[in-house]
Amino acid sequence: MYDESKRMSKKLKTDLPVVFLALKHGSASVPAKVTAAVTVCYALSSVDLIPDFIPVLGYLDDMILLPALMALTIKLIPKDVWMECREKSEGMWADGKPKKWYYAMPVAAVWAIIIWLTVKAIWF
What's this model's pTM, rounded to 2 decimal places? Predict the structure, then answer.
């Protein structure tokens, strides 16, 4: 079980840069770009749907949701675009995740909207 989880984690780490490049590729369809954007934002976000400090459930969302998003995104990306982006992504994030702050803006915007809607629902 541990080896399988380690293999899946490594595959996610190598496929995420490919998804990131496919997001910016001109030949990818709109649904593929939307799912790619959601996948990349969720993967790079430090905010989870279920916080990691909640025993078991906190890690289940990372083990189920992220691979499911990756699988859906990969299915929607055309094979030729996928192969082209895979070639470009070799070693792209070898030094770790991108450290540019503007990658966090879409995630922060989504959470701000969720918080605003929650506050609005409670007080109004």
Answer: 0.63
